[in-house]
Amino acid sequence: MNPILLEAVLVCYAFLLLLVEAFNSRMPRRYFGWAAVVGTTVVFFMTFFVDSSKMNPEAGYYGFYAADTLAILFKRFILLVSVCVLIMAIEFAPVLVRYLPVEKPDAGSGEMYSLVLFACAGMMWMASAQNFVMIFVSVELVTITFYVMVAMMRGNRASLEAGIKFLILGAIATSLNVYGIAWIFGTLGTTELPEIGAILQSIDSSLFPSLLFGFGLIFAGISFKVAAFPFQFWVPDVYQGAPTPVTAFLSVGSKASAFVVLMRVLESMLSNSELSSKILFMLSLVAGVTILMGNLSAIPQTNFKRLLAYSSIAHAGYLLMGAASIVSGNSGPAIAYYLMAYLISNMLAFGVLLVVGKSTGSDELVHFNGLGKKSPWLATALTLAVLSLAGLPFTVGFFGKFFIFSSALQAQQFILVGIGILGIGCGFYYYLKVIRAMFWLPASKEQSISSPIEISKPYAVMLILLSISLIIFGVYPEPIFNLIP
Amino acid sequence: MAASLFIVFLASAISPLLVYFLRTRASYFLALVPLSIFVLYLHYLQRLHDGSPLLETIHWIQSFGVHLQFRLDGLALLFLLLIAGIGTLIVLYAGSYLAGHPHLGRFYAILFLFMGAMLGLVASENLIALFVFWELTSLSSYLLVGFDYRKKEARAAALQALLVTFTGGQALLVAFLILASLTDSFSFTQILEKKIQIQQNPSYIILVLLVLTGAFTKSAQTPFHFWLPGAMAAPTPVSAYLHSATMVTAGVFLLARLTPLLGGTHLWAWSLTSFGLLTMLTGSILAIGQTDLKRLLAYTTVAALGTMTMLLGLGTPLAAKAAIAFLLVHSLYKGALFMVAGAVDHETHTRDVRDLGGLIRHMPITAIASGLAALAMCGVPPVLGFISKELIYEAKLEFGQIGWFFAILGVIANALVVAVALIVGIRPFLGFPLHTPKHPHEAPFPLWFGPLILALLGLLFGIVPPLVEQTIIKPAVVAVVGDTIKVKLSLWHGFTPMLVLSFVTLLLGFCFFRMREKFRLARETLTPLRYYGPESLYSCIINHWLPSIASLQTRILQHGYLRYYVLSIIAAAALAVAAGLSRISLPGTWFTWRSFEWWEVLLCAAIFLAGFAAILTSGRITSVVLLGIIGYTISLIFALYGAPDLALTQFLVETLTLILLVLVLYRLPKAKSLSSKASRLRDALLSLAFGFAITLLVLKSLYIPHDTKLPDFFVQNSPIAQGRNVVNVILVDFRALDTLGEITVLGISAVGVWAVLSFIRKKSSSASASQKNSSPASFEQ
């Protein structure tokens, strides 16, 4: 099967859903959610039958679209994330509807599901993009879809505010990105990454300043997507304001696909060691500041969603640390593994956050007090999730950190590793705060008498699967490793 | 080895069930688990005679070279036997001590988790596996210390111990990763082969510092000693197990394990010796003034750990022998005394030594156990403690003058320990019975059984030293020093300096014991000094510095104001561009003076005037219109320089934007002047900087060699497309599909605008009150 069919099928399906949703007002909206889940799952299984030799080298898309193992791996990754996000969105729909100024109780929640599919297709294209034009278009597809999804709760001020902030800051990042691409194209005459790599091998150093401008601006654009300093400003406000499933999607899917793009751009640049050492120095700088900034800012947070936002900045820092160590051959697999670990742990954390937030009406950490008593299973799942985010042994997060740090050490990034250790130390501080709230602090009166949190069966299955894989891959990470090229 | 680990972890999993069904009796079944492991490794001892370690490998993460490898040598076996042996007694003890406790099952689950982690730690051959088990011991000890989670002090102590040991753990991980990057292996045996290469590498110093941080935090060496007394908030079985023989000695184990690799240098020897001595003195001095049974014992444990570290630092075979022998002795007597303290606490409901006396009448068997253990702690013949003390002095005296200095410091510290032994082990049982919160009876069997066994073993090994010297101590010493040596223990060496020192120690210790009230007084008067100690530094960092730095940093960067976010990004971009520009020089010809046409001057003036007016005006619409003037002027420039089509496009876009903006802004209230003069000045400077940077960038871009492939192509091929204006041909011919797409996008957005407009019209006509709702939401939080 030709790999480009994957996205094509997904996008067509999303259009179909959107149209049916628009012209059918009787069907319950959650059916569209399940239909989207089914569609995504089908595409996920389709990835096992793709054959990149089916791609026609004569076709126009050939230089744009890579279907190597890395791309396929990340497509699967993104599809899994999307399935989780869709299930979360179905669970979240009652909350979403509450903030929609519509007459019919169910209306307005159906578009969410097709939007998730569009964003998913965009991320899949990002995973395959090996041309700056393709990168720009797919990144914009994702970003613009997210503008809508973030502001989806139109009756909620926080959501609207998040949408505006995201839009304006995102527009700045986009303009930087496209300006950078223009510089690169103006200097090298091509936007194709493999070709750029070939040209860079033997290039006159008088072109370095303009190339550095170009790559610098492009990395600024990517930094916005991965939430790295100084483009992390939007993260806390947008994460907190956006509907929780969208936040989860932003934090995992969007970040992962941006890292694939980053790795591909970096790889094309590695052929020129003089240029790449400059860029890598810049990346190390950004990584160090991002780790420190994210971890320190997470410490005083009292809102769990905002805490996760800062922790996502910190994780972006660790991932950038891996990217800055690309000269050691292991950093690619290390980043891929880290992203897998982050997917599992973060999805689990947001999964629990969603139901707790849904039942208490707030994401404040205070509302997690006494959760260990009220809903021991949810509390256990969240404990696993935060322990894994903190990087404790026997959780999947440990190996993520371990691989990143060992590849950084191979690349002689000693200062960065030192900063990373500091960051992990801070991490324990605020992740344990969550556990303390759940198991040590007593719940307030009205909470302890409220009924236990109810969750639907498929949702519970998702949480259980995530928890189990968190432990299994924390003890035995080999299966994930075998998937990574 | 893997099998025994599996059994222990299995026991951890099923113990809650077992306790649920069998109540307290479950402890007898659970005690079988460590007992069987103990017997198994006793059996292994015989296989070790040739001195080479037994290795066992299970593949784990092949791609990263991480395997579950076990290394059973003398050192590992000594620890395995201690962990399993004392573990057996503790499991029995805890069953009785915590009888009827609602969470006994959970307690056993964590205890076995800890036991498994500890067994894995000492038997690990792979450094990463060692680290994982190391962190697991920290985690499970956190859960054990905080077992009484309703007590605030228990939670605080648990967290303190966890943070201190975790910090060390991270340092250790980095040390292991450095080792791996130097040798391309995580396997201890393979790393050991490259010893010289590692010691000559410049990163050796960092490596040693990191390893020492890890080991010192775990083994409570000064300045990290403070967590251990704090951790006495744990239930007594936990203290007896973790804080005497197992967890705290993990750091000593690590030092011993790595001595063959990192030892033999001045750095290693001096840092271990000096920190060891310092810890020994700190621990013993702080101990004597305490009144709580467990805290007394905890501080002497600190002193004992210091002694072990110091002996490892001395590095001679004799010192290693002394260290291993002392480790064994200490585990036996300290475990016993902790259990006795628990039994006394259990029977009298107090742990204050000032309230205890004459207990021998009520608790004779406990008293015997306690007395024997105390004698071992004092180092009185014929107990094994005496032999180990002699060995320690002998090892020190090998070093001549500085050795005498060490020995004298040792005498003082040991004398203080002797005094504590008398206070803890002997005094509560002698003298007049004092009134205690609960009337004491002899403790139940499991509570005296453990201490008695341990104390008797100490006596037995003292009388018949061959029982341990060749079987346990020698293989362990060989594993540390690396070659075979003669190990001979005996009670009587003749009249030697060591014997004199031993007796001086005992005498001085007895004097200190008599002066104990004075020490307590001194401690109370000196308490304010704690303010300058490492513990208050710790609490300062955790409770004040870290949160305040963090919140300050967050306030500065993440205040929620969109305008400052944009401002920061622009500042960062301007800075980056400026940093890049500093290395670029423009060619001298970038600006040449020539006469301007009058309309050029006019246009420039118009742009400038409009720009300034846009900044100065307070009306939104006015400023938009002024910006529009700039746009129109630019399109005029396009027109005048021969690009009428571009001018037309610019004109249209400008008009459309203007209309849209006016439509939106019309509904917003009038702009208020909110910003202060200073912030305006800042904004102005920043805008100027950014504009300047971009201007330079544009100028520069004219002077870098461009790729001319595309322009050439279009110029050459335009005639084929029947057009002479290249831009037009590109738009309608070469990129016709793009243009179509753009038209579609424009159309869709026009529809969107129309929908919004009609929505607003409907809304405002239906209810005039609803106008209030469309007032802008505040962008600030």
Strand and helix layout:
The complex is a heterodimer of chains A (485) and B (781).
Chain A: H1 5-23, H2 29-46, H3 69-98, H4 111-128, H5 132-150, H6 157-188, H7 193-201, H8 208-226, H9 234-241, H10 244-269, H11 273-298, H12 304-324, H13 331-360, H14 371-374, H15 376-390, H16 396-410, H17 414-439, H18 445-449, H19 457-475, H20 478-483
Chain B: H1 2-22, H2 26-47, E1 54-61, E2 66-72, H3 74-97, H4 104-123, H5 127-145, H6 152-183, H7 188-193, H8 195-200, H9 204-218, H10 227-230, H11 236-242, H12 249-262, H13 266-288, H14 293-314, H15 317-348, H16 364-378, H17 384-397, H18 400-426, H19 445-463, H20 466-481, H21 497-514, H22 516-526, H23 534-557, H24 562-581, H25 598-616, H26 620-640, H27 644-666, H28 677-701, H29 709-717, H30 726-734, H31 736-766
Antiparallel strand pairs in B: 1-2
Helix pairs in contact in B: 1-2, 1-4, 2-3, 3-4, 3-11, 3-15, 3-19, 3-20, 4-5, 5-6, 6-9, 9-12, 11-15, 12-14, 13-14, 13-18, 14-15, 14-18, 15-16, 15-17, 15-19, 15-20, 16-18, 16-19, 17-18, 17-19, 17-21, 18-21, 24-28, 25-26, 26-27, 30-31
Architecture overview:
The complex is a heterodimer of chains A (485) and B (781). With 485 residues, chain A is mainly alpha-helical. Chain A folds into 2 domains: 270 residues, no CATH class; 214 residues, no CATH class. Chain A contains 20 helices and no strands. In chain A, helix 5 runs antiparallel to helix 6 and helix 11 packs antiparallel against helix 12. In chain A, 61% of the residues are buried. Among the domains of chain B are: 252 residues, no CATH class; 56 residues, no CATH class. Chain B has 31 helices and 2 strands. A two-stranded antiparallel ribbon of chain B has the order 1-2. In chain B, helix 1 runs antiparallel to helix 4. The longest helix of chain B has 32 residues. The relative contact order of chain B is 0.06. At the A-B interface, helix 6, helix 8, helix 9, helix 11 and helix 16 of A face helix 5, helix 6, helix 23, helix 24 and helix 28 of B.
